[in-house]
Amino acid sequence: MNTKSKTKTVLIFGPTAVGKTALLEAPVFHNSEIINADSMQVYRGMDIGTAKPGMDLLSKVKHHLIDIRSPEEQFHAGDFVALADELVTDINGRGKMPVICGGTGFYFKNFIYGLPDAPPSDEAVRKHLQVELDSVGPEPLRKRLAEVDPVSEARISANDNYRVLRALEVYAVSGRPLSDYELPSKPRAQYDCLLIGLNREREVLYERINRRVDIMFEQGVAEEVARLRKSGCRAGDGGRRGCREDDPGMKGIGYREFFTAENEGLSDEQLRELIKRNSRRYAKRQITWFRQLKNINWFAPDDIDGISSCVELFLGENDS
Question: Less packed terminus of the chain by CB within 10 Å, N or C?
Answer without folding.
Answer: C
